[in-house]
């Protein structure tokens, strides 16, 4: 529950900062490489603790890596599919994250 609150607070701060500074996020702004780096770091920061915990459950690191990567890629795909409809994606993802 703490992670959800921290994520929500940081998201609101980033959105408010972008609106206040009228940040441009087009192809010439240089935002895309930075965004890709942070997405990659976020995935790695999530994967490592999950793999460590799932090794205890599944027994082998290869099995844990396979299960974690499958789940992360599947949920990323579902999130990308729901991103067309921003309000329905919020109402779908928030109860799942809170559970």
Q: Could you walk me through the main structural features you see in this protein, from its secondary elements to its overall organization?
A:
The chain is mostly helical. It has one domain (2-24, 42-98). The protein has four helices and no strands. The protein has helices spanning 2-20, 31-58, 61-82, 86-98. The longest helix is centred in the middle third of the chain and has 28 residues, at 31-58. The radius of gyration is 16 Å and the shape is globular. The N and C termini lie close together (9 Å).
Biggest pleated-sheet summary: none
Number of strands: 0
Q: Helical element count?
A: 4
> Which segments are poorly predicted (pLDDT under 50) over 5 or more consecutive residues?
none
Based on Cα principal axes, name the global outline. Answer: globular
* Category by helix and strand content: mainly alpha
Radius of gyration: 16 Å
Order of helices and strands: HHHH
Termini gap: 9 Å
Helicity, as a percent range: over 70%
The number of distinct structural domains comes to 1
Beta-strand content bin: under 5%
Let me know the average pLDDT.
Answer: 78
């Amino acid at each position: 529950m703490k992670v959800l609150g921290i994520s929500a607070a940081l998201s609101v701060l980033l959105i408010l900062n972008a609106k206040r500074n009228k940040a441009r996020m087009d192809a010439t702004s240089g935002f895309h490489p930075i965004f890709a780096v942070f997405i990659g770091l976020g995935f790695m920061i999530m994967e490592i603790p999950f793999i460590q915990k799932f090794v205890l459950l599944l027994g082998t690191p290869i099995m844990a890596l396979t299960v974690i990567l499958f789940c992360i890629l599947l949920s990323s795909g579902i999130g990308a599919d729901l991103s067309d409809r921003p309000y329905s994606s919020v109402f779908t993802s928030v109860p799942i994250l809170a559970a």
